[in-house]
Structures are given as structure tokens and as C-alpha cells.
UniProtKB/TrEMBL annotation:
GO terms for molecular function: hydrolase activity. It comes from the Bacteria. The keyword Glycoprotein does not apply. The lineage of its organism: Bacteria, Bacillati, Actinomycetota, Actinomycetes, Mycobacteriales. It comes from Dietzia natronolimnaea. This is Triacylglycerol lipase. The keyword Membrane does not apply. It holds the Pfam family Lipase_2.
């Protein structure tokens, strides 16, 4: 089945000037793809295992050294999910990131487990195609709803799973509850917002909450905030609360959760942008599991940036996507911003 045009055209990484060496490389790559066996492109079980770097910079390094290219094995529109992993996984990056630099640890981890993996860049502008999450939340939700439809049509799957980081979690939760309920099996949140408490403040500004009533300001201003373009960078940050136009849709009925979707919310006590009090809503919610990394691993120092490179986080994510193959999460020293220290043991070996 051909790759859907609309989702792929909207989700891109930075463009670079075309040179003769680049044209030669592209031609060689295209020839290799054409001559490769069909099974290697469509069956995730035939892919060779990839090394995994537990550093927050792994995706950015790949983007710099392979300009314009997705992570190897990602965005394979001929991939067909297996009986073991019947749902493709869509990765939704955070504010200002993209489908490559946010997922240098998560993408190969999922590929090695045999998933079909898709990693779009959503909400980018033509001027800065590699900087995602730069529009309003309604724009991001509409774009990713169409993208989800394209993934399901291309793979033949009934449902997809979503792994989001930061703002990407809110986008995924909108799809699971508002625009495509029933089509998302699992949402995994890495440092995302799911309600929290008023005392925690607002996403991205949690450290100011002891001094400023950010929740009160949001309640006053966001209710009357019109949807549409705003003359400011990353205006979707104004939408990630219960009071904005899109926020009211997500929190209708008092919860951002769809009863037919499973949610795993992962947070770190060292996250200064979206701490656990903001990641988790108050009370118990059916189908929702929460994890604070330091509750079971005191030496984990992952912050908002290192969450997606942390071995414990990766194991919790994979456990959520495939509970029958769950392992004890690795407790490994992880530093803020950079990621894990030393040689990390393989999954299930620590």
C-alpha cells in the first residue's frame, strides 16, 4: 500500500541544500531499498538489532550526521504489525523538538522489540520545518488525527499505541479521548500533563508556582482565549491546561482519560517543568497507572530532558505496551540533561 501523502508531507525534518554528494547518497539509498527483499521492509521481525544509546543527545546526533533522514527503521510505511505486537507505535515529541531528535533511545528500543514505529514532526512551520510543536494545540491535534488515520490505513491495524513526551502527551490524549476514541490502545506519558493540582502551577512553569498563582492566571485568561494563530513562539503552551478551548474538550466530564484506553504516566521528582504533582491527576482513575521513578530507584536523577533516555523509563514504557512480556525495570544512575551513566545492562538483565 503506498505511503499516505498528507501525513508524510506535513511531518518533516530540517531541509538542507542539495549537493552532488547528497544526490549520490540518496540515489544509492533508493537503489538499495528497491533491490532489498520485500520481507526486510515489511516484517519487523526481520530487522537487525540496533545498538541503544541511553543519552538524551542520541537523536540529535543522528539528525546532524544524517540530515533529512528518519531514524533507521522508523516511518516504514510498508511495515506490517505482527501478532505479538499488533498495534503500531506513534511517537509524539515535545515542544520545539522533532520526530528524530526526541527519540534516539526510544525508537531503537521499540524497533528491537519488533514494533512498527512512526515518528512524525508535527506543528512545524515552513520556515523552521525541524522545530515542531510550534502551532496551536488544535492544529497539532488535527494534524496528528489525520496522521493516525494514515498509519492505521497503511498498516491495517485496528488501533495504535502512542508514546508522548511533554506536549506530545497532550496531543496523544486528545486523539485517544476527543478525536479518535477507540483507536488508541495505550498512551504512555513521559513527563506529560494530565491534570495535576492547582498548587503545581502550569506545565513548563512549575518552578514559579510558589511565587505566582499561575493556575489562577490561566483560569482567568485561558477561558476567553480565542483559538487560532497567536503572535508568540510555541502558543500551544497556553492550551495545555483545563481552561483553554482545547483544554475544555480534553477535560470534559472531569477527566482527560478515555475509558477504553490504558494510560501509563511516568514522571520524575527531578522534573522542574512537569513534576509528578502536575503529571498525575488527583484520585484513582480506572485504566491509569502512575510511576514516579524515584519511588523505586533513588539513584535515578533523570529530569525532563533525560526522561526519554532513561533505562527505567524505557522499561516502564515497554512494560505498558506489552504487559505480558514485562520485566523488572532497570534501576540505573541517570543524570539530568545528559542521560544514563556508564554501560547500561540489557533489558531484563539488571
Amino acid at each position: 500500500m503506498p505511503r499516505p501523502a498528507a501525513p508524510s508531507e506535513r511531518c518533516s525534518v530540517p531541509r538542507f541544500r542539495v549537493t552532488l554528494p547528497l544526490l549520490t547518497a540518496v540515489a544509492s539509498t533508493a537503489l538499495a531499498l528497491v533491490s532489498a527483499p520485500v520481507a526486510s521492509a515489511s516484517d519487523p521481525a526481520t530487522r537487525p538489532a540496533q545498538p541503544i544509546s541511553y543519552t538524551a543527545e542520541a537523536g540529535g546526533v543522528h539528525q546532524l550526521t544524517n540530515p533529512g533522514q528518519p531514524w533507521p527503521g522508523v516511518d516504514d510505511w510498508s511495515c506490517r504489525p505482527t501478532a505479538e505486537h499488533p498495534r503500531p507505535v506513534i511517537l509524539l515529541h515535545g515542544t520545539g523538538a522533532n520526530g528524530v531528535n526526541n527519540w534516539g533511545t526510544v525508537a531503537p528500543s521499540l524497533l528491537n522489540e519488533g514494533y512498527c514505529v512512526f515518528s512524525p514532526t508535527y506543528g512545524a512551520t515552513p520556515l523552521f520545518p525541524g522545530i515542531g510543536g510550534a502551532l496551536r494545540m488544535s492544529d497539532h491535534v488535527a494534524e496528528m488525527t489525520a496522521y493516525l488515520d494514515g498509519v492505521l490505513a497503511a498498516t491495517g491495524a485496528e488501533q495504535a499505541d502512542m508514546v508522548g513526551h511533554s506536549q506530545g502527551v497532550t496531543v496523544g490524549m486528545h486523539l485517544s479521548k476527543v478525536t479518535r476514541p477507540g483507536r488508541i490502545g495505550t498512551v504512555v506519558s513521559l513527563g506529560g500533563f494530565a491534570g495535576g493540582t492547582a498548587e503545581a502551577g502550569l506545565p513548563g512553569l512549575a518552578s514559579l508556582s510558589p511565587m505566582v498563582d499561575l493556575e489562577g492566571m490561566a483560569a482567568e485568561s485561558s477561558r476567553g482565549l480565542p483559538d487560532g494563530p497567536l503572535p508568540m513562539p510555541f502558543p500551544a503552551m497556553l492550551d495545555i491546561n483545563e481552561h483553554s478551548p482545547t483544554g475544555r474538550l480534553l477535560f470534559a466530564g472531569g477527566t482527560p482519560f478515555d475509558p477504553g484506553t490504558r494510560y501509563t504516566l511516568i514522571a520524575s521528582a527531578y522534573d522542574g517543568l512537569v513534576p509528578p504533582a502536575m503529571s498525575f491527576p488527583e484520585g484513582d482513575h480506572p485504566g491509569v497507572t502512575t510511576h514516579v521513578l524515584q519511588d523505586t530507584c533513588a539513584q535515578n536523577g533523570a529530569d525532563h530532558a533525560a526522561l526519554y533516555a532513561d533505562p527505567q523509563t524505557l522499561d516502564l514504557m515497554l512494560n505498558a505496551l506489552d504487559p505480558e512480556a514485562a520485566v523488572t525495570p532497570r534501576c540505573w544512575p541517570t543524570t539530568p540533561i545528559l542521560g544514563a551513566l556508564g554501560a547500561v545492562p540489557p533489558r531484563g538483565k539488571a
